[in-house]
Amino acid sequence: MKITIFGTGYVGLVTGACLADVGHHVLCMDVDQGKIDKLKNGHIPIYEPGLESIVKHTVEAGRLAFTTDTKDAVAHGVLQFIAVGTPPDEDGSADLQYVTAVARAIGQYMDEYKVVVDKSTVPVGTGDRVKAAVRSELDKRGLELEFDVVSNPEFLKEGAAITDFMKPDRIIVGTDSERAKEVLHEVYYPFNRSHDRMIFMDIRSAELTKYAANSMLATKISFMNEIANLAERLGADIENVRRGIGSDPRIGYHFIYPGCGYGGSCFPKDVQALTRTARDCDYDSRLLNAVEAVNNAQKHVLFDKISHYFNGNLKGKVVGIWGLAFKPNTDDMREASSRALMQDLWNAGASVQAFDPEAMEETQRIFGDQPGLTLCGTKEQALKGADVLAICTEWKEFRSPDFAAIAATIKEPVVFDGRNLYEPDMLERHGMIYYAIGRGRNQFHGG
Ligand SMILES: NC(=O)c1ccc[n+]([C@@H]2O[C@H](COP(=O)([O-])OP(=O)(O)OC[C@H]3O[C@@H](n4cnc5c(N)ncnc54)[C@H](O)[C@@H]3O)[C@@H](O)[C@H]2O)c1
Asked: Which helix (H) or strand (E) holds 316?
């Protein structure tokens, strides 16, 4: 099938590449000329395992192409996927300007039946707005062309996006049109062979499903962080508690890892946007407000521990940081906990020596020549001359480091671990002091 994707970010590019991989003919459109130039020259603008090789071979096979030309993009596909960003507006609601711009462009240029598929995460009711935007452009042109609008939220995880897209747990399709349903069924057929993963529903329910899924996951994390904070104060070890409750199949092991807060482009903004949606319909979402508040506070716990260790005097101290991306296997720094920690350290007069396996360029782009920040080429370099070590991202290469070398390099043998990567005994054996999240009485806690 011929498919157009608007937006070549994490979702758009992965969607385009995977749909081309199974045989569809895909044209990806983006307004960012720099991104499209890179893609045309064979460079992938983001780090996502496995993406580069799929893009390369589908481009070579002639099934994937890139453009900045809106008219060509609209002409290409019977399916028009919208995968542009929906960042938070000033009041926390989702900013729909990019989604509506695409919808208008489709109405301006279409000259035959189209299925407009909303893949961006959008508030309930956006399907109607997209429909109205397309319709109003068609009206301006005096045309009465048929089109359908579908909500098809995306559930891929950065870092595992290709596998998630190729083997989805579910494919949610919200539509009120039988014709669109058939088209979507055909598009996703190759991903459905072992069993049918498609769940059809009305548009509003599909839109809400995406927010509900992310809010549920964020809730699990904030809940666990709250219990971890309690464990610290009560002399319990959250890692034991985690195993103890995860073994209950009603709870499960997924997403109950305590840490220094969730980040990324989705959870923070989606929880905020749903809270805002609730307010707009006069509902006070007390649980979601708490999930967000707990997370915002959690992003400062590592700093509180470091500050406590140095008796509140961090002037001139150097903190080595391992991990800057909001999670492993991505270079995405949006809302990353490392940003809150670095900002707190700079405010307190400390400086930072940081290393991340993939997010160095992104950190440089965001913080530029920020005084107090040294970007290091290896994790070992980040330790040289540092007073202590802090860990913000659970990259594999941090999981089993040379503890003796760490102890011999940093000035004070102290590790502040925001991801609970190690067993406290291991570090003690090397004469080190270990502060993690929610692990017993020896932990400093804020406040
Ligand atoms: N990143 C994720 O893990 C993830 C997962 C599921 C859902 N989502 C949702 O998918 C959507 C996209 O997220 P993302 O992370 O891919 O965003 P992104 O910021 O990485 O990419 C968005 C792209 O859209 C482009 N764009 C903006 N206006 C455009 C226009 N008028 N025409 C064409 N392109 C345009 C931008 O230049 C950018 O390249 C968001 O709503 C997000 O919440 C993201």
From this structure: none
